[in-house]
Design brief:
2 copies of one chain form a homodimer.
Chain A lengths: L24 H28 L3 H12 L4 E2 H8 L3 H13 L3 E5 L7 E5 L1 H21 L5 H21 L3
Antiparallel strand pairs in A: 1-3, 2-3
Helix pairs in contact in A: 1-5, 3-4
Chain A binds a DNA duplex through helix 4.
Chain lengths: 168, 168
DNA sequence: CGGAATTGTTTTAAGCCTAAAATAACGGCC
DNA sequence: GGCCGTTATTTTAGGCTTAAAACAATTCCG
């Protein structure tokens, strides 16, 4: 029951603030999902900056490369990071300038380049990843193991539902 | 069991691609949440551009104003949209230039301004919102009602867990 | 072989976003 | 009144992001 007249302390709203009870469940669900995602993401962003003077896209890029020791092409990277290829060009440029990542031309196909971690990039990533893991664990600490598994499964369904909705 | 040797068709990965089974459940859960959020968000972005030649931040801003007919201050808006106040200045500037939103000075406090929908902004929003609602419904159509309610409840727990983790 | 369609990447133009510093106005307090 | 801490917003500098166009190399196929 919202009291529009005399809010003692406006409690720092989010996307869900001001939603009406008669709004569709789908919409409320989507907004809550977005809120959760934004909360976690911005907290990780904040800590990456504070503790490691870096950004989330840079961290995500190093993370993907760490999982693929053979290197990845620009296209593979842009798909995994879910960003445009043009975006990736600048991001890789900055990381190359930083010495954390290297571009290597493909001998068979001169269009493609393979991006991989440099020793320095790997070292930097290895410094950050334990802290990152702890942050995520802490933020999700309020959920029990069975809650997490349930949520994980429901999100799998959601992912499939979203993916399927455009193939019609 | 991933086969790195001969992938018949690399199926357009996402953040979860390349995750190892021994990664922590918390991390896998977070990446799946982020993937779902990104998938839905980028699809909505794409359709807003295609069908209404606008962007998600603009739509979200109109949406918040629509829920608060009395208008909102810049600070209230930035909290609800979960963006920085500096960001909001530019966003509002563009929408004012577009004639969709208006700034009104507070007579009691010359620091604050109240932002509200113009008639044109309201009209524009009312055109978009049924389509937007349909998009979300379609994307979530693969989930049953009880799944949605369960997911909604679990995300409430998650939201609380994340919010509580920084007050320690 | 030689054009045509395709694929991989970069460029471009514009908008979004943040943190931090700067401005400006308010309120309390001597 | 005049200073001081707080609050509301804008400015600044730099990075992130996208869609669309441009460029370049490959492959298809007659």
């Amino acid at each position: 029951m919202a009291d529009a007249a005399t809010p003692t302390t406006p409690p720092a709203g989010d996307f869900e603030t001001g939603l009406e009870g008669n709004d569709k469940l789908q919409l409320r669900l989507w907004l809550r999902l977005l809120t959760c995602s934004n909360l976690i993401e911005s907290e990780i962003r904040r800590r990456l900056r504070r503790d490691f003077a870096t950004t989330l896209p840079r961290f995500d890029l190093l993370s993907q490369l760490d999982r693929s020791p053979g290197g990845l092409s620009m296209t593979e990277l842009s798909q995994r990071l879910m960003v445009s290829n043009g975006n990736l060009t600048g991001l890789v440029d900055r990381l190359v300038a930083d010495g954390q990542v290297s571009r290597r031309a493909d001998p068979k196909d001169r269009r493609t380049s393979h991006i991989s971690l440099t020793a320095r990039g790997k070292r930097h990533f290895d410094e950050m990843t334990p802290a990152h893991e702890t942050w995520v664990e802490d933020m999700l600490a309020g959920l029990g193991g069975s809650d997490m598994r349930q949520l994980h499964a429901l999100l799998a369904q959601l992912k499939q539902s979203v993916g399927g909705s455009k193939e019609a």
